[in-house]
Each structure stands twice: as C-alpha cells, then as structure tokens.
Design a protein that fits this description.
Shape: globular
Number of helices: 13
Distance between the termini: 30 Å
Number of strands: 9
CATH superfamily: Gcn5-related N-acetyltransferase (GNAT)
Largest sheet: 9 strands, mixed
Low-confidence stretches: 1-28, 34-43
Order of helices and strands: HHHHEEHHEEHHEHEHEHHEEH
Strand order of the largest sheet: 1-2-3-4-5-6-9-8-7
Length: 314
C-alpha cells in the first residue's frame, strides 16, 4: 500500500533536530512549515483548478491548500490505521494523520461530500495521491521504488510520461460505485491534462500471510501478468513469489471474488501486474505492482466515462 514509519520525515531529519518541528506537528501544519513552496494549491494547475466531476452531493477535485492535504491525511489515517490495523509511528499516533515526505510534492485528488452534515464543512470521503514522473525526478524518485524496480521499467520506455497512483482509500460508508467512479473521473481528467502515457502504483491485499493469498496472487501471476516490456520486479531483498498454485487448482470466479475492490477495478480497465509481491508488515498488507499503459485501457471504459470525461462532468 502506498506510512509514516517507513521513510517519512527524512527531510526533517536532514534539515536538523526533529524536535524543532514538534510545535508544527502538534498544530498539524508540519508540511506547510517544512515545504512552503509546495503548498501552493490548484492555482498553479490551470485547467485542473475547478471541480473535475460531480454526482449528487459528491464532487471530485484536486487539493487546493495545505488544509485540504491534512484532511486527506486524516482520512488515510482513519482507514489505514484505525480500520486496517496498520502500525503507526509516534508522530502518526500523536497527530492522527498519515503523512510522509511525498505528500508535499504530489497532487491530491479528493472526493468531497458537500452534504455530509448540517452545519459542517464538506467532508473528504475518498482520496488518491498522484505523482508525475517529471516531479518525482526533481525530488528523489517515486514512492513505489522502495519496493519495486521502477527505474528499469521507465528506462525501457524513453519519452513516455509516467504517473504514479497511490494512497487510495475511501471512507467505509462511501465504498460504492459512484465514489470509485468519481475518483477515476478525476484521474482521467488529470491523465488527459498532463498527456500521461502510463500509470503505475502499488495496490494491496489485507494481511501478510502470503499462503492465505495464494489464490488471488496466482491468478494475477498467470492471468494478468504484464508483458516483458511493461513488467517490473520487486527488489530481490523484498520479492515474494506470486505464482503459488498450479493452473488447474485456480477457480477463476473464486479468485476474482477474493480480490480487493481496487484490484478488481484495475483488472476491469485492463491493468496488468508486476513480477512479484512485497509484504509490508508496517501496513499489514501484501502489495502488488499495477501497470496500466493508457493505450491499453479497455475501450469500453473510455466509452463509459467519455473521451473528455463527460459522464460526471461538473
């Protein structure tokens, strides 16, 4: 899954003693203090500064401020740590925010319920984190490269623009078709605006017992493995074999039913998967690498959302 404990606050350590940032952490504006030039909002993204899609009381847009990013981090904490039993680091426990150094350089896609409650501000109910290749190359790389050899994948496709998707989650009462489709509406608008050629990122199965995940992992390895030129391997020290069952022992329907909704959604749009899985004990997940070249997206879904995303147009 795309933790505070894994490699967050590296820049804080590089800048000096950690305790110097404690007041900001307690206020919740650590990112704004540490990365002031990154907290510039959607005003620097002409064409993406408005609402990207809407259905009923829900709308999707990019984060416009440090406050928006903190709301996304709080939702991620609620889902990843409270609900899914990931292990928070000290700062995450104190602030109840899931934050890392990548938050300051990424764009954050938000689904917002504008009717979440009388007298309350609109509630962030779904998030995606987006990191473009050109931004990653200026700031030390991608999040996913901690687990998978992304550099080799990108090197095989010079001139193509890559986008990393990560930290996706949806508040439990909103885990339905319309929320997920609004997130995809936002991703599709972003992809078209930045002329992205391929997307990738980690997707996760809950739990770290690979034997219990043998069926879905074997299905992905045998039925949805990326072609050689699009394949990426996990780093050897972290690689876990995915092809654990013989083909004759795989019930295809049962395998699909055992997929988390996000992975099932990736399969439906035509995504393929990398060479290995990686066990992330801090997040209590088993991660797989999703790879989706834009020209390989199932045309049915392009038609469903519309070439220009008109299905949920704001």
């Amino acid at each position: 899954m795309l933790m505070l404990g894994k490699d967050a606050f590296q820049k804080a350590r590089a800048l000096g003693a950690f305790h110097h940032h404690w007041p900001a952490l307690m206020r919740g504006d650590f990112l704004r203090d540490l990365f002031p030039d990154a907290m510039t909002g959607a005003a620097r993204r002409p064409g993406l500064d408005g609402v990207l899609g809407r259905t009923g009381s829900l709308e999707v847009r990019l984060a416009r401020s440090a406050a928006d990013i903190r709301r996304a981090q709080r939702l991620r904490y609620d889902v990843f740590f409270d609900e899914m039993a990931a292990t928070p680091g000290l700062i995450a426990r104190v602030t109840r925010h899931d934050a890392d150094r990548f938050d300051a350089i990424c764009d954050h896609l938000l689904v917002i319920d504008r009717a979440a409650g009388a007298g309350r501000r609109p509630q962030v109910v779904g998030v995606y984190r987006l990191l473009r290749q050109d931004v990653a190359e200026r700031h030390g790389g991608f999040y996913t490269q901690d687990e998978f050899d992304i550099a080799a994948l990108i090197a095989r496709h010079p001139g193509k623009r890559f986008l990393e998707l990560g930290r996706s989650c949806v508040l439990k009462p909103y885990r339905d078709k319309r929320t997920v489709e609004l997130l995809w509406q936002g991703v599709w608008a972003y992809v078209r605006h930045h002329r992205i050629d391929a997307m990738f990122g980690c997707a996760s199965f809950p739990g770290v017992d690979v034997a219990k995940l043998a069926l879905p992992l074997s299905f992905l390895s045998q039925q949805a493995r990326a072609a050689d030129d699009w394949r990426a391997s996990a780093h050897p020290r972290r690689a876990v074999e995915m092809n654990l069952l013989p083909a004759e022992n795989i019930d295809l329907r049962l395998a699909m039913r055992s997929m988390p909704p996000l992975i099932k959604g990736y399969l439906r749009v035509g995504a393929k998967f990398g060479e290995h899985a990686v066990v992330d004990r801090a997040f209590n997940t088993t991660d797989v690498l999703v790879i989706l070249p834009i020209d390989q997206i199932d045309r049915r879904y392009i038609g469903y959302f519309g070439e220009d995303g008109e299905r949920y147009a704001a």
